[in-house]
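Methods: holo model generation. Sequences were used as deposited, without trimming of termini or removal of tags, and paired with ligand SMILES retrieved from the corresponding compound records. Each pair was processed once, and we did not select among multiple samples. The sequence and fe (ii) ion SMILES for this entry were:
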Amino acid sequence: MATFDLDGWVARSGALDLTGIDWAEVPRHPVPPEAVRTLYYMQDIESHTIVYLRSLLATRAVDDPEVATFLACWLYEETFHGIALARFLEASGHPVPPRPRPHGRESLAQWLEARATALLSRAWGDFCAVHMTWGAINELTTLTGYNRLKAVAGHPVLGELLERIMRDESRHFFFYYRQAEQRLRRPGAAGVARFLVDHFWGPVGTGVGAPGEIEFMAKYLFAGDEGQVAVRKVDDTIRRLPGFAQVQLLEAWMDRHANGGRT
Ligand SMILES: [Fe+2]
Ligand SMILES: [Fe+2]
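and the model returned the structure below.
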């Protein structure tokens, strides 16, 4: 298998280009209240990336040159997504309110999750296989969520902004997915990764946002036939990873948490 072209990947990394985004045009088009609520959630999760990174820095991810270089670029890009979404919300008359609890102050559940992640990394040499798989799933659901938001919100400036953010998200997805494909082929790696995804995976932001918000967002973005097609496409893509052929992911989560993905 060809090695991953990290230099080429890094060369395309950079801050989100906001050149030509017409912020003055934003308030001239309605933003549906459901879209505002969804954007609050997405902005919060983008801004939370630095906290995800904190727990990853306690793992063997930092010892892998490709992964460590990627994570530095990834944090930089995700940070600009949070800033850009906050700027859009502000321009539309919905400034982002202060968080009830700062991002850096973890709940007990988040602290335990970070410790468990560090322990798993210490005990298992192929930890990065599950990290890359997890990342691929989360980037793909994020990319799909933004694509659906662009469609359902119908706001021209938001649509342009999301197009640009999606270009970054699809590069993030590509990195994680290619890495996962390679690492899951190592002996035993797919079995452990699959067990962890089966038992612990939830959509990105689970346990970070206010209770009920992720379910609200999922219903808003993935309602109807087009939403269901998008959900199935996520699952079908991840099922092409080694050992993941039968995995139950977003569609199953929708059925459990969002009053059924089938509408
Ligand atoms: Fe992002
Ligand atoms: Fe991303």
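Residues 78, 139, 142, 169, 172 surround fe (ii) ion (ligand 2) (CB under 6 Å).
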